[in-house]
Amino acid sequence: MRVLRGAVRVFLTLLPAAAALTAAEVVLLGLGLGGTPALTSRGFDAAAAYIVPDPARPGGWRTQMFDGTAPEREVPPRDPAKHRVLLFGGSNTGGFPPAALAFALDHGTDASTPRAEVINLGRAGYGSGRVAILFEQALALKPQSVVIYAGHNEFVEAGFEAEVAEHLSPTLRKAATAATGLRTFNALCDAIRAGGGAPQSNPTPKAWSGEFERFKDFTYDQTLAQLEQYRANLTTMCRMARERGIDVVICTVISNPLAPPFSSTWPPELSEANRRRARLELFAAHEAFPKRFAAVIADAPADRTHAQDWRRPARPLPPDGKVPTLREWPSPVRGGYHLIPPPEHWSDLARELAIAHEAFFARVLTDAERVALETARSHLETALAIVPDHPAGNFRLGAARWLLGDDQGARDAFANAARFDRAPRKGSDATNEIVEAVAASVEGVRFFDAAALYAQRAPNGLIGLELMKDECHLHERGYRVLMHDLADFMRGRAPEEGL
Amino acid sequence: MKRIATFLRERPLRWIAPIVLVFGGLAWLAWKTVQVPALPFTYRVDFP
Questions:
Q1: Number of Cβ atoms within 10 Å of the Cβ of B8
Q2: Contact between residue A346 and residue A312 where contact means Cβ atoms under 8 Å apart
Q3: Angle in degrees, 0-180, between the axes of helices A220-243 and A429-441, rounded to the nearest 10
Q4: If we measure between CA atoms, which residue out of A231, A235, A299 comes closest to residue A261?
Q5: A310 or B39, which is more confident
Q6: Which of A70, A177, A378, A455 has a CA between 20 and 30 Å from the CA of residue A289?
Q7: Helix extents (H) in A244-345
Q8: pLDDT digits over A328-358, tens only?
Q9: Banded model confidence at residue A116, pLDDT cuts 50, 70, 90
């Protein structure tokens, strides 16, 4: 009896609130307000609709993922006479010219082969997390082939996700996502937005560059744990597509081995004494390193080139007239200025770095520089005997070995520097090995080893600024060549035939 | 019905408080939610 009385009391207490909420829902329904769910993430949520039916074209679709930074993709209704290919990934994929890929895929085929229809769904900043959400939705476009080129953005994207979590904790996000089922909640969001009461954060281009810094204190074990999510996302995408009989091509990503690592933390198990010893050795190596090559190993944010450093408005070259000679790549890449915009478009930083790299690749040393480099190498080897996975130490060792003529040793050390980077902004052997393992683990997935192909083509096996704008982006013509390579792979042709 | 009417008349705080809590909670959650950029992508990772 007592329990019953208590239940009645609770019922009476909550009834008016429930009635008020129901009344609000009915009124808003009548007014047509609050019908659009308020999204609670930057796409880290299956509820974020990346692709929606196009009301203007029955059977067609359109994207809503570029936020005004690029035209949204308008996808026509499926044409059975065409072979639809979807491209997925971050800004590199976004730079892939779809017409070039379609042309290369159609090249040399007869009339009985369906013409290629390539739709680029790559978006700057997307890592495998958001690509996987987009991927699932994009299966509605009924592609015959999908190409996944992702691996540079795992820590960039994780930084975005962390920032979303700072605005809204996972618990609150769940609550907000549940609340989006109420018109009252959605209408409140609209009203607050319209009133300008709580402006959304809309960072400037500069703000993005620090996203990876959230992870700069990661230990390497934490870095590897983060990469396991990458593995899981790739596996999910491959399985989803293969279950529907879709041809899946998964690619390793091409990186610039000469872009220094972004974070070098000490292993937590390292004793204080050993840490001190290693630090002193690294410092001594840095001091000994010849100043003429200092720009090559400089790793401060201001020392790194970005995409915009190679496409400034044209201006006269400086009075000294120094124009670096870039290395030539073999056909079909054809390096030097064929790949890169002319020097009139370079920023001062790009020019200085290209001049330093020219000297770095020429390897013409004075006797004093050779002695200094041998000293630096010795200090670095001592430091790495204490901390073998120190990213910056490995990178500098790579530079010293290269200058001293040890090509293979240099390549190995640069690869280790990228692999052990605690907060990388580029793919590495670590991510590319995951790609290969995923391809092997999901039946029918085709593995395109773009990284190996380009490392094999690069002079001395070392990719440089002739191909790369920064740590992970190819120059525009590089993308065109890559599209031919990708088409050759997809059509089962030898790499060179497509050009 | 009579009992509900009596309750509403005699114990206003007991039923007003949940209404304030529900709508206040929703408003607070909405305030927090709109501070999170809502579109799938709001960052410019690519420079113009």
A1: 15
A2: yes
A3: 30
A4: A299
A5: A310
A6: A455
A7: 272-288, 294-297
A8: 888 777 666 778 888 899 999 999 999 999 9
A9: very high
**CA A450/CA A446 separation, integer angstroms:** 12
pTM: 0.83
Q: Please name which of A288, A16, A42 lies closest in space to residue B21, comparing C-alpha atoms.
A: A16
Does the structure show a pLDDT above 60 at A200?
A: no
Task: Give contacts of A 57-76 with B, CB under 8 A.
Answer: 64-67, 69
DSSP calls for A52-116 = EE-TTSTT-EEE--STTSSPPPEEPPP-TTEEEEEEEESHHHHHS-HHHHHHHHHTT--TTSPEE
Q: What are phi and psi of A262, to 5 degrees?
A: -95, -25
Q: Which two tokens stand for residue A442?
A: 């999901």
Closest residue of chain B to A45, computed from CA coordinates: B40
What would the pLDDT profile of A242-272 be if each residue is shown by its tens digit? 999 999 999 999 999 999 999 999 999 999 9
In this model, does residue B47 exceed pLDDT 50? no
Tokens of A40: 């609670």
pLDDT at residue B42, as a whole number = 42
pLDDT digits (tens, 9 = 90+) for A125-178: 889 998 999 999 999 999 999 999 999 999 887 777 777 777 788 888 889 888
Residues of B in contact with A188 (CB under 8 A): 26-27, 30
HSE, CB side, 13 Å, CA atoms: give it for residue A58. 0
Q: How far apart are CA A472 and CA A307, in angstroms?
A: 10
Of the pLDDT bands very low, low, confident and very high (cuts 50, 70, 90), residue A284 is very high
Instruction: Enumerate residues 165 to 194 of chain A having a beta carbon within 8 A of any beta carbon in chain B.
Output: 167-168, 172, 175-176, 179, 182, 184-185, 188-189, 192-193
Residues A363, A399 contacting (CB under 8 angstroms): no
Structure tokens of A44?
């880290």
Tracing tokens 């400037």 back to the chain, one arrives at A204
**Cβ-defined contact of A42 to B46 (cutoff 8 Å):** no
Query: How far, in Å, CA of A374 to CA of A368, rounded?
Result: 10
Instruction: For CA atoms B43, A463, A225, A220, give the dihedral sign.
Output: negative
Answer yes or no: do B46 and A91 touch at CB < 8 A. Answer: yes
Which pLDDT score, from 0 to 100, does residue A180 have?
A: 87
Q: In what order do the strands lie in the sheet with A51-53?
A: A51-53, A61-63, A74-75
Q: Quick one: which H or E segment has residue B2? A: helix B2-10
- Give Rg (Cα) of chain A: 27
Q: What is the dihedral of CA A124, A129, A131, A132, to 10 degrees?
A: 180
Q: Is A417 helix (H, G, I), strand (E, B) or coil?
A: helix
User: What distance in Å separates residue A132's CA from the closest CA in chain B?
Assistant: 13
